[in-house]
Every structure is written in structure tokens, then in C-alpha cells.
């Protein structure tokens, strides 16, 4: 998703639907984690994309769950070399847990600059955010840019309270959050793209008020706002 119009998507995998190409939307291929390496190696240079994405939520035990050292090894061996072949490279993604910033600091300290690429070949930083306050979202995203100075993709976000304390977002809360964060991101030049959670039938453990697609595959009112407002 580009800031001004739908222009890219990803599927948390190296797979890309044929419909993306037909619609003129770039599908970015992701190496979700070590267990998906074989699939990624098979599909990463398939025509239709010039953007490769690193591992998903490396600081989350239920997701890719990788140490910075393990992340560096996988990145340097299977993603970084493609930056020298004209691909744009999106970093591994971290959750909005406090450990995310430190994970990236350790990652960049370990990955080395041996091939002349800045920031270990990372062209774009991927971060996720789940919370309920627009101001907290803004502060979180801004901190990553202040520390690393790399353009940002917010590759997951939603009005979701994972703290275990307080209430969950109402429909009105979700709309306030969506309109607030997207208008801010549209006006922030170093945020290149954002991807709301989610254009999905199954929202997993995320509040269904954030759902962007209905049971028939059509955009919800929130989805229509996200895609075209």
C-alpha cells in the first residue's frame, strides 16, 4: 500500500496471487522465517516484484522468534545480496513490544558493512504497531526514524489493546484511530507505505472491528476508507 493509492501488497510469504499483477499492484515477497526458506529461495526472483521483505516479528515468540544474530545470518545470506541486483530490501519486522528497538540496534551492530551497502542493505524499515492511541502510534513510529534514519513501512497496525488491562477498541475508537494515524502517515514524508491489519477473513487474535474485508471478500466501510479515502 503506497501512501496515495493501493500499489503494493504482501502475503506474509513468498507467494503472490495472480490478481496482483492483473491489477497492477506489486506483490512483495517475504521470507517469513527460517522454516520458509525453501519456498523463499524458489520464488524470490519470480517476475512481478522488485521488493523483498525480511522476517516477520522477529522479537515475538509466537512468530519468527529470532535473535539478532540469527536474523543477521539469514538476512546476509538470503536477502542482502539481492540489494546489489536492483531489489529494494525491507528489513525484518518487529512488534511494538519494547524489545523491538533493541533488536534492531543489535541487528545493525552485528550485520556489517562489508559490501558497501548502507544500513546492511536495508532500504526500508518494517515495524508493527498495535495500540489504541494515535499519539502513542506517532511517538513510536517517529522514534524508530529518529534512531535509525531509514524510511519506514508500517507493515501491520490496528486499534488493538494487547495489554490485558482496560477495554478493547469500540467501532468508534477504531475509526478514530484509523483516520488519525493514516492522515498523519500521509503527511509524513519518511513513511513510504502502510498496511493495516487486516484485509482478512480470519482476524486471528485482533479485534474484528478492525476488519477491512467482509465474508464475501468485499471491503467493509473501514476497508473502503483505507483503500480509497
Automatic annotation (TrEMBL):
One of its GO terms (molecular function) is hydrolase activity. The keyword Lipid metabolism does not apply. Keywords: Hydrolase. The keyword Hydrolase applies. Residues 7-226 form the Asl1-like glycosyl hydrolase catalytic domain. One of its GO terms (biological process) is fungal-type cell wall polysaccharide metabolic process. It comes from the Eukaryota. It holds the Pfam family Glyco_hydro_cc. One of its GO terms (cellular component) is fungal-type cell wall. This is Glycoside hydrolase family 128 protein. It comes from Hydnum rufescens UP504. The lineage of its organism: Eukaryota, Fungi, Dikarya, Basidiomycota, Agaricomycotina.
Amino acid at each position: 500500500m503506497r501512501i496515495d493509492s493501493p500499489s503494493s501488497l504482501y502475503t506474509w510469504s513468498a507467494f503472490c496471487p495472480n490478481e496482483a499483477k492483473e491489477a497492477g499492484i506489486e506483490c512483495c515477497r517475504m521470507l517469513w522465517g527460517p522454516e520458509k526458506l525453501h519456498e523463499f529461495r524458489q520464488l524470490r526472483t519470480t517476475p512481478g516484484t522488485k521488493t523483498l521483505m525480511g522476517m516477520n516479528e522477529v522479537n515475538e515468540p509466537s512468530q519468527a522468534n529470532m535473535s539478532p544474530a540469527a536474523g543477521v545470518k539469514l538476512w546476509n545470506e538470503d536477502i542482502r545480496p539481492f540489494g546489489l541486483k536492483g531489489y529494494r530490501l525491507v528489513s525484518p519486522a518487529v512488534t511494538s513490544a519494547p524489545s523491538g528497538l533493541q533488536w534492531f540496534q543489535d541487528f545493525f551492530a552485528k550485520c556489517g558493512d562489508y559490501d558497501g551497502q548502507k544500513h546492511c542493505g536495508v532500504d526500508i524499515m518494517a515495524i508493527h504497531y498495535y495500540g489504541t492511541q494515535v499519539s502513542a502510534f506517532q511517538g513510536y513510529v517517529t522514534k524508530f526514524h529518529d534512531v535509525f534514519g531509514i524510511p519506514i513501512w508500517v507493515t501491520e497496525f490496528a486499534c488493538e489493546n494487547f495489554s490485558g488491562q482496560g477495554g478493547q477498541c469500540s467501532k468508534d475508537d477504531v475509526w478514530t484511530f484509523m483516520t488519525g494515524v493514516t492522515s498523519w502517515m500521509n503527511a509524513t514524508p519518511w513513511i513510504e507505505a502502510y498496511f493495516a491489519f487486516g484485509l482478512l477473513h480470519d482476524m486471528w487474535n485482533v479485534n474484528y472491528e478492525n476488519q477491512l474485508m467482509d465474508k464475501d471478500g468485499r471491503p467493509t466501510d473501514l476497508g473502503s476508507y483505507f483503500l480509497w479515502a
